[in-house]
Specification:
Blueprint (H helix, E strand, L loop, with lengths): L1 H14 L2 H14 L8 H25 L2 H24 L9 H12 L3 H13 L12 H23 L10 H8 L2 H15 L3 H31 L8 H28 L3 H12 L6 H8 L5 H31 L3
Length: 335
């Protein structure tokens, strides 16, 4: 009983953190009919700033880290991204009223990574003094790209089989290149490269670091309003998407947490790194993933895959999964 009480107390405490409070606040004011709007250009600038900061910090740490420390977590990230898509293809796509193209696109978004969720987790962990390797955000593309590529490949294969086409070859590189050109990954990879190849410590400390928390609070507010707005779209599709969007982030995060724990005991991967890996798996792409899948799987219904991702998946991953995996880490690793 004491263990359950401590677990519940940890989760409740996390809901009082500013990051989660802004997300919930955004959903509340949207529900009350507020006309508050954040221009899209400002939203995109905020995302760019956050990802540049994360990339710069990760690049500096990668430069100083032992390459052997990164290999197993990077492999696990890629495996988890692919597993999430395959699980969605084998489960969601088989449920009544769910179209295969919609299910594959949905699982692709849930396999890809949310920059906002990753940034929120990092802030909360820093506030809790929950240490993690600063290079862990560099695992983002290792999970994100394989998930998007696999989803697009599976959708193409399904389309060809439905048309009676026996040709199974799908060109992989154009899909990867398109993913790399996405706004979120471009910003992250640019920051990663600059941190790895240059010495940006001064601009990181004097410009990006001081702005990080304030910009993230605005992003959480926008995400809350967007999540509420997207809930209406889910009424147009099968209710299975709502059930999937509630359950999938927790399940995906638990898979990554388990594999990350293996890395912890074999290579010394930190408990904080395990938590961030689990949060990345629990998240779902909200910036570059939707336009990528819209263009690559035009037969998929955006109300299904974007509605379930942004409307339900993102709030669950931020408000539930981050506190959940922090509490789980304290229990598993006896912190």
């Amino acid at each position: 009983m004491d263990l359950l009480a401590d677990f519940a107390q940890t989760i409740i405490a996390q809901f009082q953190k500013p990051t989660l409070a802004f997300l919930i606040g955004g959903m509340v004011i949207a529900a009350l009919g507020s006309k508050l709007e954040i221009p899209d250009a400002i939203y995109r600038f905020i995302v760019f700033m956050l990802l540049m900061k994360i990339g710069l910090k990760a690049g500096i740490e990668v430069r100083q880290a032992e390459l052997a420390e990164l290999i197993l977590p990077a492999i696990i990230a890629a495996v988890v991204g692919c597993l999430i898509v395959l699980l969605g293809r084998l489960t969601l796509a088989r449920l009544p009223g769910v179209r295969t193209d919609d299910a594959i696109a949905t699982s692709g978004l849930f396999g890809a990574v949310s920059a906002s969720t990753l940034a929120a987790a990092m802030i909360i962990m820093e506030e809790e003094r929950f240490a993690f390797e600063a290079w862990v955000p560099a695992l983002y593309p290792f999970m994100d790209i394989p998930a998007l590529v696999l989803a697009i490949v599976l959708a193409n294969l399904h389309k060809r089989r439905a048309a009676g086409d026996s040709v199974a070859a799908v060109r992989i590189w154009p899909i990867i290149a398109d993913s790399l050109r996405g706004s979120a990954l471009s910003a992250l990879l640019l920051g990663l490269a600059l941190g790895l190849l240059t010495i940006p410590d001064r601009v990181l400390d004097t410009f990006y670091e001081p702005l990080f928390r304030g910009l993230l609070s605005i992003l959480m507010l926008v995400m809350g309003m967007e999540a509420y707005a997207r809930l209406a779209e889910l009424r147009k599709v099968a209710h299975w998407y709502i059930a999937y969007a509630f359950a999938a982030p927790v399940l995906h995060g638990l898979v990554a947490f388990g594999l990350g724990t293996v890395a912890h005991y074999t290579t010394g991967f930190s408990p904080g790194g395990v938590v961030l890996l689990a949060v990345m798996a629990a998240s779902n792409s909200d910036i570059s993933g939707p336009p990528t899948l819209r263009a690559a799987i035009p037969t998929a219904n955006p109300s299904a895959f974007i509605g379930s991702s942004t409307g339900v998946g993102t709030p669950v991953s931020i408000a539930i999964c981050i506190p959940l995996f922090l509490a789980l880490a304290e229990i598993v690793f006896k912190l």
